[in-house]
Amino acid sequence: MVQEVSTRDVYGQTLAQLGAENPDIVVLDADLSRSTMTKFFAERFPERFFDCGIAEQNMMSIAAGLAASGKTVFASTFAVFATGRCFDQLRMSVAQPGLNVKVVSTHGGITVGEDGFSHHSIEDIALACSLPSFTVIVPADAIETAQVVRVAASTNGPFYIRLSRPKTPLVYPSDYHFVLGKAAIMRPGSDATIIANGLMVAAALKAAERLQQGNISCRVLSMPTVKPLDEAAILQAAQETGAIVTAEEHLEHGGLGSRVAQVVVKGKPVPMSLVAIKNSYTKSGKPEQLLQKCGLTAEDIEAAVRETIRRKWRDATIAESP
Amino acid sequence: MEELVQMARRLRRHVVTMIAQAGSGHPGGSLSAADIITALYFKELRYDPTNPQWPERDRFILSKGHAAPILYAALAESGYFPVTELSTLRQLGSCLQGHTDRTMTPGVEMSSGSLGQGLSFAIGTALAGRLDKRSYRVYALLGDGECDEGQVWEAAMAAAHFKLDNLLAIVDHNGLQLDGSNREIMNLEPLADKWRSFGWHAIEINGHDFPAILGAFQKARQIKGQPTVIIALTVKGKGVSFMENKVEFHGRAPTAEEMAKALKELS
Which residues of B touch A63 (CB under 8 A)? Predict the structure, then answer.
């Protein structure tokens, strides 16, 4: 049985450790500290924790003012509020001046489940990636989350880090080492490559396992850093496997898939498929039901890989025909 | 006081000249704030133009970013950069952007232009000062039309909640916004009472009267346990007769002819 650990719990715990190590770390929340788990920091360092109430716009500009005064600021709320609700504040107060603000959101994607579309964050990666100075990361599990939070704390500049509500399966070995802007090869393979992040890494590994039973050798790349992307790993995958499938818990537009497609199209065009939420809003339901309804399961990834490989073969046949 | 009056006149001349040369900009809100800015930069604020990042400096945050020209004029006359730079306003390659940009101009604390964010940014700066046990004070200048933005009131609530007595907000209450008067477009009154009900100490003054402005600054320093706001009643376009109380000059540059006429009035 795969162990499941909450990424937001690990975020909160890591933040509290960082607070002890670095007196310049200040944490803000918008009345969700019991859900984002910044409460662990708040309990240990109440003088460096500011609850801004339900006022995300104010929180992000306060974060900018603190950062402009030399603080390393973590600002947390739910993903859907952390981006759309205060996009202009992120743009003008944080991104343009390149201030040292780490926006760490929880409850990303649709696995918030029953709360419904108002709480389903399906555009946040697109919004965050559109901000020029932002680094954008979607960790796959708790092991990675702890390292990502530490790297963000020690790297100057704006970050957007998206975590989930439910516990997520551990996908990395305990000796995993996160490197900013680098993909991790989770599984070797030569017929196609699945590039995934967040919860979808576990689904991608499951899909690759099933494909292997049908003698399809599928590489799995975990791509935690959505911006800047590991272009070399993508181009190598395109070159060596000739077919790419991306998988993300986000809209098809502006997320991991469309960013990978930009790299593929420019550097090494090969058949590609995007496993992502299509152009619509979502409904209330259990997380597993919603993942199924939105086409974000291991079976969906498997089908996408088979379809993409068929296109690769077809292209090869056309190229060889006289 | 006479020196401040002279300096304010000089800054107003810079504003009119810069905007006329640039061919675009917002003269009205720069001229209404000219006396407040003069009092701040030539009497009130502690700063070192040779070291814009001096940690103990008082922070001035221009939230109404379209009044950038009056801030640039004050920064130049304070020695942050040569006065000759002012003629490059809004040109490609200039350090003087159309709205303030903290990455481009020495002495500019915050990038601004999208309204409503400066008071929140000032709160962050004031909280940092308190955490670091520094004695600097934080000053934020807002427009009255800007107070239409909901974020201003989020910040008003938070600054009082955090008991930021090292923070002073100034509202340049010239009564006009782009589409017309505050009263016609979005009524703000009773403005001072609104701030009071949010937990602020509010002082209403004539924003063109130096003894009143300096007196309010002094009073604000004595208020403990809560932030202070100065509601400065001003005249949009103040100092240039044909711009005074004219909505038209919120965001229109004077022509060469109008510039000459204005400079004559300000001589």
Answer: 124
Q: What is the rounded distance in angstroms from the CA atom of residue B155 to the CA atom of residue A81?
A: 18
> What is the predicted pLDDT for the residue at A6?
94
Q: A250: how many CB neighbours lie within 10 A of its CB?
A: 30
**Which top CATH class is A184-320?**
alpha beta
- Active-site residue numbers of A? 56
Do the Cβ atoms of B139 and B45 come closer than 8 Å?
yes
Of A53, A61, A71, the CB nearest to B120: A61
pLDDT of residue A322: 67
Classify residue A320 by burial, with Cβ atoms within 10 Å: 0-12, 13-18, 19+.
Answer: exposed
A91 touches chain B (CB under 8 A): yes
The complex's ipTM works out to: 0.97
- Our CA-based measurement puts residue A132 at a distance from the nearest CA of chain B, in whole angstroms, of 14
Measured between CB atoms, does A4 come within 8 Å of chain B?
Answer: no
Q: Above 70 in pLDDT, residue B159?
A: yes
Classify domain A4-169 by CATH number: 3.40.50.970
Q: Which positions in chain B touch A55 (Cβ < 8 Å)?
A: 151, 154, 157-158
Task: Locate the domains of chain B by residue range.
Answer: 2-265
Expressed in angstroms, the distance from the first to the final Cα of chain B is: 18
Q: Which two tokens stand for residue A19?
A: 């607070």
Residue B47: strand, helix, or coil: coil
Nearest by CB: B102 against A70, A91, A97 = A97
pLDDT at residue A316, rounded to an integer: 87
Chain A residues within 8 A of B117 when measuring between CB atoms = 57, 61, 88-89, 92-93
